[in-house]
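S1.2 Input.
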Amino acid sequence: MLEPPEVADCRELNLEPGRVLRARPAGLFLFLPLLARLGFDRLVAAAGYPGSEMVPAPSALLSLLVLKLLDKERRSHLDDFNTDEALGLFAGLNILPKKSFATAYSYRAGRAQQLGLMQGWVKAPAPMMFPAAEGFSLDFHPIPYRGDPAGLDRHYRPRRGKAGTSVLTFFALEQTGRCLCYANANVTRADQKGAVMRFVEFWHTVTGSDPQWLYFDSKVVDYPELSRINRRGIHFVTIRGRGVALLRHLERQPPSAWKGAVIDIPKRSHQRIRYLAEPVRLRGYEGPIRQVAVTGLGREDPTLFLSNHFEETPRDLIIRYAGRNRIEDGLGISVNFVHLDCLASEVRLNVDLDAALTVIANGCYRWLAAQLHGFEKAAPKQLFRRFVETSGTATIGEDRLTVALDRRCPNPILREAGLDREATPIPWIGRRKLMFTYR
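S1.3 Output.
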């Protein structure tokens, strides 16, 4: 019985010298220097992902990563590229696998594989992506489930202002590099409060030390969990709910107890605030904790900050916590560009693979932005539209792969970046070196 042509094509990669493959989004190859330098195939093998003779594990992960990098919402959209041989070559295949393979693959991977992949991914690019990692912003993100009733918990969904059936995910973003470095979609209501310490253990495994600073809102952990973080010697800044008794206590304070300060906000503006710092005790938290009440942040009632760092000035604590908005921006980008909210499955472990690939796609775009002069803070959607969406051809040579990008205005920026200057052989493309040319 004859095999389907797409299965036979995937069995052996055709690297015949002289082949010229046309690619609609040839800019996708801009990410290959990073993936080759980090040894993406070795990271996948070390994590223990399953593969087959026709579709090895690195090619399977790269096929799923293609959708994240090309602004595609669902795995079924993989069929849009089934005839694009150049994109198949990007993943080390003749053509990309069918959507049925992409959909079923996540059922073969577990949390251990995702954790191993992220550990390798974070450890490998650390010197160039976040060499001085100090603080991390943490947050939950519920992915709404809109199908028939399933065995999923109900979680608060901020956009709707009420709880709803959803898969709860947890993300960590490194503050300085603005890069997602951790994801966990295997979270239930019962073990939700331990999500922060699981990230701490993850980072300790990768780097050999605990994070120095953590920033999160009041719903991420409870007060006993704050004690666990404090006992590890980790500094944190979080916020506290404004109760009626607390507001009355602040109203009774004399005006002389409030201090003035100016904090820096984006676009070189300055914002005047008034604050009151005092030690307080919380039920379930061991020992005193520092509370900073702040007015002038745009709310009628004071905002209450909590921290276990007593030497840092209140102004600096407020500025530190203001950087936590970056994870909200990062999650917003993950929803709008990487389509995190397009639920891959009603099974949490399957969504976990999608969340791990979101971390990798975010890192790829942060790396690309860092290489392009003037685009260091550009959002992935802007980078995709200007650079990645460029069409072109891929020509297979004896020892190199030449990608010729069609003429576009931003091409001089890519030429200046010299992404192929230190070309690393690509193992899944016959150890050929990558070279870019511009029409």
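S1.4 Remarks. The longest helix spans residues 348-371.
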